[in-house]
Amino acid sequence: MFHTVLLSLTEFVGLNSAVLFLRREHNHRVSFHPTCTVSLITPADSLRVYAGLRFDPFFIDVPPLKESVFGGRLAFRPVGNNNLAGQNILSIVVEVDCAPLLRAGGGPLFGVVGATVVAGKLPIRIERVGRPEIKNVILSLKDYDEANRDMELRDIYNLEDAFHMSKDYRGAYRARLNANLAMFDRLDGKADWPLDAQGAHPLTELLLADYLVVDVSKPYAEDSFFEIEQALLEGRAHKTCGGRSLNAVFFATGRCPNTEDFGLSAVGVAVDERGFIVVDQHFQTSVPGVYAAGDVLGPGLSSVTMEQGQVATCHAFGIDFLEAVDPIPIAAVYGMPEMAGVGLTEEQCQEQGLDYVVGRCTFASIPRGAISGHDGLLKLIFRRDDRRLLGVHCLGEIASKIIGAGQMVLHYGGTIDSFSALTLPTPTYCYASARISARSRKS
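User: That's the sequence. What structure does it adopt?
Assistant: C-alpha cells below.
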C-alpha cells in the first residue's frame, strides 16, 4: 500500500533568512493501491494514478563523489561518468484535483511526502521520500559526525513521520546534518554557509523537515525545483509551483502498428485511422486472397494471434478445422502480481444498463493465500435476476490461470452457481470462486 500525504501549509516564518518553519492547520490524506494497470481514474474522487517506467532523474558519479567526501576536496572532473545511466525505475504518479483541498480552507502551499507502507495490521513504513537524497547522502555519512559516529541514522530517520517528527532522535539528526552540510560546503575550499555560534548549519532546520513544498496556484517551469525555498532565502516572492520535476515519465497512450512502410495502399489493402489493417471474420483484408493477423489488427495476446493465423490459413486453403477466434478471450498482464480478466467489466455492465451483482474474495481469506502469504482479489460479476455470469477478473499470483474456469462458464452461458456445484480442490486459489458462489447464494 502506498500513501501520498498532503498537508496544508498556511504560513511561512523566516528565521535567520535560512530557516523555514511551516505551520500545519489542515490535514488531508489521499491513499491508493497501485496495480499493474497503466492508469486508474476515479472521477468521483478527482484522483488519477499512473504507473510506468521513467528515466532515473539523478546524475551521480560515484568514484569522484567518494574521493571528494573522504579526501575533503572536490574531485569531480570536467567529463564525468553517470553510474545511473540506462537505469529505469518504476514511477507512480498521482494527479489530485486540488480544488477540494482549497475549498477546505487550506493552501495554496502544500507539503508533499511519498511513503511506501506495508499493508496489514501493523503499517510499517518501508521508505519515505520527500526531498531527494536527504537520507541516502546527507544522513548516511557518519565520518564527520563526532557525536553520533556509530549510529545508523538514515534508517531511523526513514521511520519518522515527516510532519510529526519525534523528539527522541531530533538532536542526533541535527548533529548529523550540521556536520555533513558543513563538510559538503567546504569541498570547494570556502564556506558559503558558515556555522553559527552553537555550531548549527543555516540549512539544517530547512532540510530536517523532509517534504517538498509546492504551490498549486503557480505554474510549472523547468527551474521549479526548490524555487520556493530559494525565493525564501533570497527574500523574494516565488514564481513557480516548486516541488520536483517528474522528468521523463512514460505513459501508455495507446499503440499504433508499424504498417506505414508495408506498401498497403499500393495494393489496395484498407487500414483504419490509426493504421490498423481492416479484415473480415476470416481475417481477409479488403484485397481478396490477402490475409492479416496479429498486432497489425490491434493489440492482443499471442494466444489470440495464433488463433487468428489459424483461422486465416484454414479459410485461405479451404481447411475445415477452425472457422472463428474465441469470442470471449482472456486478457492478461503478466506482471508481479498478474492481472487478468474475461467477459464484461462493471463499467461495461453500466453502459449496457444491466442489473448486476459483484462478488469478491481476497486470497488472504482462503487457505492457499494464508499458506503462500500472497494476497490477491478475485471478482465475479453476474446478473441479479438469473445469476448468469457476466465477467471474471483477478489480481494476484497466477491470475491468468485462475480465471480459466470462469471463461468456460461464460462460454456456455452458465451461472455463478456453477462454481459451488463443482468440487474444487483446496488449498488452491480457484477455491475463491466457490467461496464467492456460496456467499452469493446466502445473500
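The radius of gyration is 29 Å.
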